[in-house]
Specification:
By secondary structure, the chain is an alpha+beta fold. Helix content is about 30%, strand content about 25%. It folds into two domains: about 1-35, no CATH class; about 40-205, no CATH class. The protein has helices at about 10-20, 20-30, 60-65, 75-80, 110-120, 130-135, 140-145, 200-205; strands at about 40-45, 45-55, 70, 90-100, 120-125, 150, 155-160, 165-170, 175-180, 195-200. The chain starts with 10 loop residues before the first helix and ends with a helix.
């Protein structure tokens, strides 16, 4: 008997599904696919991971992402070109994404989300984190997190119409997207949204 004989009958099926289906499993067996450890973890409805900046400016991010096949929305481009979008270099940030399941539908409003983050001693991220998140995770990764959108809860940046906006990494039907959405305090968000903040060094200690 195989040493795996004690496993449940659906154990191997679960492995194939985790890899991404039969085709990806075949690629793995042929050495055409590398399966690496998860780059994020979830605890109590919050997803944690780190990103590291490299000095790329907002306009440079537009070019960089589009060259890699990402769709960057028009309003996202406006925000990335704004002088309010600052870049850093060599800064590693631990990100905490509050999942929508932490909020009742009626309470999933920007000011409530920020208040919950503040109680957890989470802080506002730099807007550039939107690009780092979008580049780091595939649409499949975001789906596995149980999310459709990752809203970056940075200080809102005004678009050309004077409206405050927040950048968002989201999975689309036909492309990997970086977009921007209205970010005023009374905006109500949907199920499937996640809200990205920064874990302060004091909380990590």
């Amino acid at each position: 008997m195989s040493k795996y004989g004690h496993r449940p009958h659906n154990w191997f099926e679960a492995i194939v599904n985790k890899i991404g289906g039969e085709e990806r499993a075949e690629q793995f067996l042929k050495g055409e696919l590398i399966v690496s450890a998860p780059t994020w973890r979830e605890q109590d409805g919050i997803i944690y991971f780190t990103v590291t900046s490299d000095g790329t400016t907002g306009p440079e991010w537009i070019e960089r992402l589009e060259k890699k096949g990402f769709h960057v929305g028009d309003y996202a481009k406006q925000l990335l070109r704004s002088s309010d979008c600052k870049q850093t270099s060599g800064v590693t940030t631990e990100v905490a994404v509050l999942k929508s399941i932490l909020f009742e539908d009626k309470d999933r409003i920007t000011h409530n989300i920020r208040a919950k983050a503040e109680k957890r001693k989470l802080t506002r991220p730099n807007a550039e984190i939107s690009c780092l998140i979008r580049e780091k995770f595939t649409d499949e990764d975001i789906a596995e997190m149980g999310l459709t959108w990752i809203i970056i809860m940075h200080k809102p940046i005004n678009d050309s119409d004077g409206n405050p906006n927040l950048l968002s990494a989201n999975r689309g039907s036909d492309s990997r997207c970086l977009n921007a959405f209205h970010g005023s305090p009374d905006v109500r968000w949907s199920r499937g949204d996640g809200f990205a903040f920064v874990v302060s060094p004091a909380c990590r200690a």
